[in-house]
Please model this.
Amino acid sequence: MNLKMEIVGGRITSLIHEEGYRYVSNSAVFYASQIMDREDLGMNEIKEICKRFHGVAVEESEQYIRIYNDPFCSHPVYIGSNGLKDTFILSTQFIDMYQIGSDLDLDYCGFYELLWVGQMLYDRTIFRNVKQLPAASFCEIDRNTMSYSIKTYYDFEIFENKDIKSQQNAEDMVYQYLRKIFSKYENMDVLMALSGGLDSRLSACLLSENSNAKRTKFFTFGYDKHILEYTFAKKVAKKLGLALPIFIKLNQKDYKKAKELAIRTGCQVGINHGHTYQSLKRKEFHECEVFVSNYYSDAVMGWDAKKEKRYEKIENLELYRKICTNKDKLPKKIAEKVVAEALNDLRKIVRRYNVDSNFSCFEEFFYVTERNTKFHLRSAYQCNDVMRTEIPFAEFDLLKMCISIPLKYRWEK
Model:
């Protein structure tokens, strides 16, 4: 469900969107297809809807144009500008930014952030004149000055639920909510990657409760059929009475094909993570209605949660050290500027983190709000171009529920 806009002189002059979006004339809002059918929404309501539904919202007034995303970046939003001061391109596909052509300017800071920490931080990309919306944020274009700024509308302030008194209480609560989410696949021909690990095993169990579970197709990829992932995946499927996973053997050509995803995402998804996207193109999966992705399950289930709360000054964060310790490896003429910009990007993320929230530490907050949204969810969005892709663990109420669980019940999943 791709969306592309061009804004010239403060007006939306070009608009291209695929089926799954619709335009609400009174408030100039684009929604993913599952949004309720109303035209009288105020922007506070739209922000709340953006949290709970995967989509993009656009607000227009005499003074500005605002583009909102959701807390998961399930629809990434990129903002690009060329040499013309009054022209902007906004798109959910990074490849649309390449049309800026020779005006694209390499962002050395973005490039080195990618090398140092595995991603670009906050709103940065590999091009200086292209920005991306961080999770739960909006881009505001001033129609008078033809400048834009990026601001957040929600900072993931989720606090401990003190009514949860036991591990069993926490498990029952999450399980019942997940059953509700997975019940929507009751009458669908589902495809899912199955590794036999905790997350895909849980999803397979939830899918097995549906009456049409035996029609569900699974696949596992790897360099050899003897890998542990495939061994465990077969055991899980057999135990649940489901179809055994199809094994997809990777070879050198698969890694060459995976370059496509790196180009499409502005280097945010590397070649070693493009195999799911390529697997969906196989003929034996063409009859499947929906690909159920387990991305974001690590985020909500506490993969990076620590047993006890930990607060560190920014100077003691691992990300801070990674940036600073690489300074001497840079060309001297750019070293000071690149490190200063990267640390400023990190500070923008740190400012969003409320130490009184129930995230165990900044690293967990970063993993949930930055790493997953820019890597895992970015990959899932590209899968949508091949097959309808849903991310059942990327649900706002599930996120709030899981993060609110006392740390002693959710640390390290």
Q: What stands out?
A: The first strand starts at residue 3 and ends at 8. DSSP finds 14 helices and 16 strands in the chain. The chain has a mean pLDDT of 88.
